[in-house]
Structures are given as C-alpha cells and as structure tokens.
Specification:
Blueprint: E1 2-3, E2 21-22, E3 25-26, H1 27-37, E4 43-48, H2 53-63, E5 68-73, H3 78-86, E6 93-98, H4 106-118, E7 123-129, E8 134-137, E9 144-148, E10 154-163, H5 164-176, H6 186-192, E11 197-201, H7 212-224
Parallel strand pairs: 1-4, 1-6, 4-5, 7-11
Antiparallel strand pairs: 2-3, 6-10, 7-10, 8-9
The structure holds cytidine-5'-monophosphate.
C-alpha cells in the first residue's frame, strides 16, 4: 500500500506532494518502482488524492507497467487513507509505504517481508537509529525537560510490514476509540493493541520529503544512492 493522498501543503508546490517531480519522475513513481522491484511484491494499492486518480494510474503505468495495481480514494488523514487502501488488500502480509519516501530501496521491502515470514510478530518496521541526542521539551516551550537516551531511540520510517488481519483489527479498534486520525504510523496502532513490533534497520538516506529543502536533499541522495 502506498499512501499518496496528502495535500503537500508544507512542501508549497501548489499541489499534492506525491506528484511533485524528483529527478524527472513524480515522488509516487519512485516508490512504485521500488515496490515493483522487490521480489516479494504481488500487487499494489495506491491511495490517491481527490481528483488525482488518473495521475496516480499514469505514474504507476510508467514506473511498474507489469504490476497488478489498484487506485483508491484517500481519506482525510494519512491513517484513514491507509485504512481505506488496506481494506482492499488481498494478501496475508501487507507493507505500508509513504509516497513521501522516494529513496526506500527494494531490498528493504524484501527484508521486512522476510522477517514477517520467519518471526511471529504482528509487525516489522523500517527504522533508523537516531544520531542526535534527543531532548524532550514542554508543550509549546523551547526549554529542555529531559534528555533521552540516544542508544534506545529509533526514528520510525516506512515501509512498515504487517499481518493484514492484525492491522485491520488495530485500525478498527483505533477508529472506534477516535484515535485513528491522530496516528502518524501504523505500528502505533499495533502497539496500542498490545501487538509486537520489530525494528528492521533501514538506511538513514530513506528520508521523508516534507519541505522544499527536503526535495533538494532527496535529489542529491538519489544521485549517490548505491555508492554510499
Ligand atoms: O504529511 P505526511 O508527510 O505525514 O504524509 C505522509 C504520507 O501520507 C504522504 O505520502 C502523503 O501523501 C500520505 N497521506 C495520505 N492521506 C492523507 C495525508 C497524507 O495518503 N490524508
């Protein structure tokens, strides 16, 4: 599942982020190509922004012409978009990936599926050890309350892999509790339901494009990927 239904307001490109060009291809095209290159990918479901269903189909056709793919309308929040897309998935395992992470390598998709096949956990997620020292500040105040032990901190990324039954149950429970819209990743929902989430160490270059500056960084990383 690729979540591509965001508005991209923080990027300031005047349109949805997934369709902003990076090195001659929309962001969505990079994620689709990586998913298609992964040996474990059987089919693709893309959550698209309202009015961009055809653009999503075109991006998929250009990047992965031979992959079975479906485009579904996205929701009001990222978690809702993912829930709507997960509803039509026909496999036992599902990987959730943000279109905003165009640098995720195909090997990462396969590594996560491999772990899910070998280990009984409900979820395996891409994550990178945090390199900076973490500081927790009070709400709205730029004043340190606590230093977090870096050795214990990981930055969660996507793709995140799940047993589809466990993910759907966790999504339904969060929705009933009114907590779905606020969930910034799916692993959080599994944690909330008491399920086990494992970390798969991912390259730090698997960055998320949020601002215009990130787009410049992503383009530079793309140029050196495979060499660093
Ligand atoms: O906004 P943010 O960077 O957290 O978005 C992460 C991913 O979620 C993006 O790829 C975006 O397209 C997607 N998204 C979505 N539906 C929404 C909001 C965001 O699919 N309603």
């Amino acid at each position: 599942v690729i979540a591509a239904a965001g508005s991209g307001e923080r990027l300031g490109a005047g349109g949805p982020k997934a369709f902003v060009e990076l090195a001659g291809r929309p962001l969505l095209g990079w994620s689709v190509a990586a998913a298609a290159e992964a040996a474990s990918t059987e089919a693709l479901v893309v959550a698209a922004p309202d009015g961009f269903e055809e653009a999503a189909e075109a991006a998929i056709a250009a990047a992965a012409p031979d992959l079975a793919a479906q485009v579904v309308p996205g929701g009001a929040s990222r978690a809702e978009s993912v829930r709507l897309a997960t509803a039509v998935v026909g496999t036992d395992l599902v990987l959730i990936h943000d279109a905003a992470r165009p640098l995720a390598p195909a090997s990462l998709f396969d590594a996560i599926v491999g772990r899910l096949e070998r280990e009984p956990a409900a979820a395996v997620i891409a994550a990178a050890p945090i390199r900076d020292t973490g500081k927790r500040a009070a709400d709205g105040a730029a004043r340190v309350e606590e230093t977090l032990v870096r050795e214990h901190l990981w930055a969660a990324q996507t793709p995140q892999g799940f047993r589809v039954g466990a993910l759907r149950a966790a999504q339904a429970a969060a929705e009933q509790a009114g907590e779905l819209a606020g969930a910034t990743d799916e692993a959080r929902l599994i944690e909330g339901a008491g399920g086990e989430v494992l970390l798969e160490e991912a390259p730090a270059y698997n960055v998320k494009v949020t601002t215009a500056e990130d787009l410049v960084v992503a383009e530079a990383l793309l140029a050196v990927r495979g060499r660093v």
